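Recap from last week: sequence in, structure out.
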Amino acid sequence: MTQERTGVATFKGNPITLIGPELKAGDKAPDFTLNKNLLEEASLKDFAGKIKLVSVVPSLDTGVCDAQTRRFNEEAAGLGDQIVVLTVSVDLPFAQARWCGAAGVDRVITLSDYKHHSFGEAYGVFIKELHLDMRSIFVIDADDNIAYVEYLTEMANHPDYEKVIEAVKKLV
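Predicted structure tokens:
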């Protein structure tokens, strides 16, 4: 049975239902299947041995998601080779590639949860009403343990960028 969490998040003040567990620092990072493009998939093991900053956005074509992804693309330049920055959304891989090209985003790996919603459901961010993933951040260490989690309570808000980068740097 799928776990539903209500009353924990809103979209422009309206309550939404999140599907999946609420993960915490110290939990083992769940595996996932995301699309790199229409035919090629990626999972947690594809980033084995790396520190993973996972930035989850509802859609790259919105203002806050655009700003969040651009910010982490800039931060990625100074983080080093042992860190990979992933942006997960439900946007189609075509749209992600188009957006990255137009925005000049080249240090972030975009992955799509459109097909299986396995990331959203495993990480507790799939929005039942909208079929999008809720804005959130996960920092996962090289051994696939969650070191930092930020579930935003309002989808239109920004994450705490400084705390996220601090959490990543603690793992280096």
